[in-house]
């Protein structure tokens, strides 16, 4: 049984429980925020953010993210080119961190959120436990996606010695930063309570399907 079935809703801002009053705009008695049984247009907003992030993910990987100049010479490099250069320079741990933070994490977030949305909308055979674990993991790893951007920002600020040595951020860094922000917002706008709503719908459909043959007999 859900809390909503018992007429209880929770404030998204301060998490105070309130009793649902029908046909009335409610506000939290603690913080004054407007109350909703479920986040309005959660699926549509999450899809919009996710699709935008997926579009920006292409230039984020194809455009140069950083240019390292030594003695006046330097070539812009994409994320993967930077990883390859780190491997060739025998800096495997740093290359692994950059690859995980800049390639694996954003890709997993895009695919993971899309799977959550699809499974909730299409009532796919996936347990609520699996969905909620995936959601919590996506929410947890979101902050680590900014690691690459932080490294670039620090390097640009510190390494600026004119023609001797300098580092400049590329257009790909801006696109990558937008991808990270949009995927984090997508994880926030997705309402995890829809996972449990979906589970109850599936259970009701299964119980109905079992009752029909019994009634006919």
From TrEMBL:
| Keywords on record | Cell inner membrane, Cell membrane, Membrane, Transmembrane, Transmembrane helix
Instruction: Name the Pfam families for this protein.
Output: PqiA
The transmembrane residues are 47-71, 91-120, 141-159, 171-190
Give any Gene Ontology cellular component. plasma membrane
Q: Which organism is it from?
A: Aquipseudomonas alcaligenes (strain ATCC 14909 / DSM 50342 / CCUG 1425 / JCM 20561 / NBRC 14159 / NCIMB 9945 / NCTC 10367 / 1577) (Pseudomonas alcaligenes)
Protein known as: Paraquat-inducible protein A
Q: Does the keyword Cell membrane apply?
A: yes
Tell me where in or outside the cell this protein is found: Cell inner membrane
Record's keyword annotation contains Chaperone: no
